[in-house]
Amino acid sequence: MSIEKEKNFVSAVVYVRNNARTLQAFLDHVYSEMDRLFNEFELICVNDASKDASEEIIREFAREKDHAVTLINMGYAQGTELGMNAGEDIAIGDFVYEFDLAAQTWPSDMIEKLYRKMQEGYDIISACPEGKGRFTSRLFYGIFNRYSNINAKLRTEAFRLTSRRAINRVTAMNHVQMYKKAANANSGLKQTFLTFSEIKAEKADYKSQKERSALAMNSLLLFTDIGYKIAFVMSIVMLIFAAIVGIYTVIVFATGHPVEGWTPIMIFLAIGFFVLFAILTFVIKYLSLILNLNFRRQRYIVQDVEKL
Amino acid sequence: MSIGATYDKIIIGAGLYGLYAAAFCGKKGEHVLVLEKEPDAFMRATYVNQARVHLGYHYPRSLSTAVSTVRYFDRFVSEYPECIKRDFRQVYATSRQFSWTQAAQFEKFAAAAGIPCHPVPVEEFFKDGMCDGAFLTGEATFDAQILRDSILKEIAELPSVTILYQHGVCGIEQKASSYVIKTNQGSFESSFILNATYAGVNEICSMAGFETFKIKYELCEVILCKVSDKLKDLGITVMDGPFFSVMPFGKTGLHSLTSVTFTPHETSYDETATFECQKHCADGCRPGNLLNCSTCASKPKSAWGYMSKLANKYLKDEYKIEYVDSLYSMKPILMASDVDDSRPTCIRIHSNEPTFISVLSGKITTVYDLEEVL
After folding, report:
1. Residue B276: closest C-alpha in chain A
2. Which CATH class name applies to A6-223?
3. Which of A9, A42, A172 is closest, CB to CB, to B129?
4. Which of A7, A50, B132, B140 could form a disulfide with B96 if both were Cys (CB 3.0 to 4.6 A apart)?
5. Of A40, A90, A172, Cβ closest to residue B305
């Protein structure tokens, strides 16, 4: 049976960091699927300063494949997010697959499934492993989804497919994406996910532990207002506390017989801390405003405009 | 033909360098013979390239190359005005991502090189966020066919210059005071040989037993295309990295489309160009006897899909490009020039009395460098 190959030009960006063990099988899988589905495609490998044989495997793989394979060697290890940004900047396809980990954990037909789903009118589709995932991931996504005002709910993703439109939109929104997944979700374009059951017994880590914690902290601060809320509430609480201490000092002075010198010290501390926390409250407010102005460059984000 | 046909100078290769040298020496009254493997002049690299008359913009990381290019630009444009096209806007832009040169650096470089460079709005040509600077420049394009006709006409008036086509050199023998050049159609003798064969430079050097150039070979594709009206009088070059250029191809009415990553199809690091496709070539192309890639049956599949996608990614949607044809040629690149991306003209005098000189240059305007050695 011969299938008519798709006319769209499709790119696949793969983040590679010390994946020599799984890389060969992964490249074979992605390349053969792309070749089967698409007339024209490219494979972009972002080698994030791998210390193992990853680069040689890519070079060997690219032999005899004319223009289909591009290798980006990062200057030093910069993590998945920046690596994927680089890969995406090079990609020329109408649609771009993004693989955060060079290991195939999904059934072979997932790549096609995502593409078919895309044709139903989505701009971003993720392939997510079934199951709950690790505790820290659940905690992070729980907090993130609860406190960000993004519609789409985030979850662990193995890879995703984005349209050129989505890439352009997200690029226009922020020059450097701290957290691609959230930026995508923030784009306001139509998106969905497909789940699969992981074919490997071991759970795959789509990001390294160190990177994950740093990223989690940054994205919670950037994409949700949880940091601002906590800081704001705490400084208000301290503000009130300082006020109460002030009142208490006045009462003790009026009714009891405090040790000499106690009252002025307490009054000074209460007023001092009251002013300090008041200033802090304003500073936090200012910081969150500046963050918003800088980070979210576009004033509003629409999904599309329809003439009715 | 027997040995005995003796000339003052024998020039191997009827590209621009070969023919310019022939005309230059012919005017001095010297008996000059040009030997060309192809059935006509300008069949390979002189014709198959971007047709850019360089004014230095291409070398923001090599000021010396840029400055020397500027020197020759005016002379070339005034000596061959009939083949020069300047009535279009030549825009250089620096890519926001992956560029080795940023907009501000490019402007500074142009000022240092003394070449015109006027900032224009990026949004006029490019999609949002793709480029960080765009500049209107004074570069031109040349029409290789017209240039060939002009030079051939010039040579036709010089009775002392002979061009023999379809004379491929197959051996070189050094005598006491001369060289004997053996071709498939006889041998010729001269005490002065100029090797102006570009991609064949090492083939000739090794036949003569001289040291070869340290070069790599890239099998390159130049795409000819039709463009929408908005792009007609516009040339766009995105620098400085894995980008592309679409610009008028001489006066043909077509544009050339090339890209840094997709134009070279394959690379050979051997002394003489060695490629997988030569195994399938019925005409006898092999290492040491490189034939014309453009007319070859086993030339690589066009990279149009890649190049057009790359251009579309940058250019606004109103600029449309339509495929017409692909031209292929072999490009030798001096290994030393990769880091600063300079393209020096390399003239090497292998021997004196009898004289044997090889020239290797990637730009048409530096042809005047030859005058010192002729």
Report:
1. A64
2. alpha beta
3. A172
4. B132
5. A40
Q: What is the pLDDT of residues A96-127, one digit of tens each?
A: 999 988 988 899 899 999 999 999 989 999 99
Burial class for B184, CB neighbours closer than 10 Å (0-12, 13-18, 19+): exposed
Q: Can you give the pLDDT at residue A308?
A: 64
With beta carbons under 8 A apart, name residues in chain A contacting B265. Answer: 66-67
State pLDDT tens for residues B82-127: 999 999 999 999 998 888 888 988 999 899 888 999 999 999 999 9
Enumerate the domain spans of chain A: 6-223, 226-295
Picking from A35, A64, A67, A170 by the largest number of B CB atoms within 10 A of its own CB, the best residue to mutate is A67
Contact B309 A67 (CB under 8 A): no
Q: Is the ipTM, as predicted for this complex, more than 0.95?
A: no
**Residue environment code for A143-162, b if the CB has 16+ CB neighbours within 10 A, otherwise e:** ebeebbebebebbbbbbbbb
The 3-state DSSP class for residue B351 equals: strand
